[in-house]
Amino acid sequence: FSCAALALVLATSLVDALGSRVIDGETAERGQFPYQVTLTEKLLVLCGGVLVHERFFLTAAHCLFDTNNTLLSLNNLNVYYGSEKLFSNGKYNRIRSVLVHDQYEHGSTQYDLALVEVRRSFELSFNTQPVALAESALEEQQAVTVSGFGRTSEAGNTSFKLKHAELTTLSSGDCQEATGDGWYEGAICLDTSNGGGFCTGDYGGPAVFNGTLVGVGSYTVGGRCGTGQPDVFVDVGHFSGWVKAQIDEKESE
Predict the structure, then answer these.
(1) What sign results for the dihedral spanned by CA atoms 249, 247, 138, 40?
(2) Pfam family example for this protein (predicted)?
(3) Phi-psi group of 201: left, alpha or beta (phi > 0 → left; psi -120 to 50 → alpha; rest → beta)
(4) φ and ψ at 127, to 5 degrees?
(5) Does this chain's domain 36-129+240-252 share its CATH topology with 131-237?
(6) Per the CB 3.0–4.6 Å rule, which of 75, 82, 149, 208 could disulfide with 128?
(7) Do 188 and 178 touch, CB atoms closer than 8 A?
(8) C-alpha–C-alpha distance, residues 93 and 79, integer Å
(9) What class is the 131-237 domain?
(10) How is the chain split into domains, by residue range?
């Protein structure tokens, strides 16, 4: 094999192993989701993420910890961005620092939010743009768009391309009923009963409404995707003040 051919084979094998795409999702067009990023560890997909500033992206806090409740080594982490194709035509950035929400406890599903700072500014372009943060909670029965490179099911089918799906927000009461003791003010639930939704590799990724970021994916109720149980997201409107304060503090250093 030539070096290029070998790289393609390795990338193909990696994506096959990941089974990468949103459940029942449609293929994204070039530049359709310029805020989408992917958190990786040594070329393995950990989670999705969403660009909110030229130096920062949001993801789920749990994505940054190992099974021993230890923060992953930042030296082993990268963020992939700028392409609707996994590991093709995109760019990489290194991680400088991680700011986990101070109410998050590893192993808990609550306050599952982290702001990640990269070592150098993202190269903004048609394919790379931050998304605006929602300023208030989203009403129920609103259609939002989710996107990611996560599995299509627990078994997973292979796709090199970013996928997206439209889901509907549930009422606060329905969300509380679905999540039980895991509910907190700052969580929103999305209805996956029609088949779409997040899966492994998608969590940490965005839910967007009218061009603003309303949610960051946290988990699926019951722990298994594709079952029709709600996807639970961190309500960005509830935490936008925290996000902006952290960015302002970092920029003033």
Answers:
(1) negative
(2) Trypsin
(3) left
(4) -95, -5
(5) yes
(6) 82
(7) no
(8) 5
(9) mainly beta
(10) 36-129+240-252, 131-237
Question: Per this entry, what is the length of the chain?
Answer: 253
Q: How far is CA 197 from CA 23, 35, 129, 144, 172, in A?
A: 5, 19, 24, 11, 19
Q: Which residue has the tokens 């839910």?
A: 207
- Tell me what pLDDT residue 106 has: 85
Half-sphere exposure of 116 (CA within 13 A, CB side): 31
pLDDT tens over the chain, length 253 residues? 333 333 333 333 333 333 334 666 889 999 999 999 999 998 788 999 999 999 999 999 999 999 888 999 999 999 999 999 988 899 999 999 999 999 999 889 999 999 999 999 999 999 999 999 999 988 889 999 999 988 776 666 545 689 999 999 999 999 999 999 999 999 999 999 987 899 888 999 999 999 999 999 999 999 988 889 999 999 999 999 999 999 999 999 8
Q: In this structure, are strands 132-133 and 26-27 parallel, antiparallel, or unpaired?
A: unpaired
What pTM, to 2 d.p., does this model score?
Answer: 0.89
Residues 106-127 as b/e (b if ≥16 CB within 10 A, e otherwise) read: beebbbbbbbbbbeeebeeeeb
Using alpha carbons, list the distances in angstroms from residue 113 to 65, 144, 165, 202: 12, 19, 22, 14
CA 209 to chain centre: 15
In whole angstroms, give the CA distance from residue 54 to residue 118: 9
Q: Which residue has the tokens 């099974």?
A: 67
Tell me the two tokens of residue 243: 């996000």
In the three-class reduction of DSSP (H, G, I as helix; E, B as strand; rest coil), residue 177 is classed as: helix
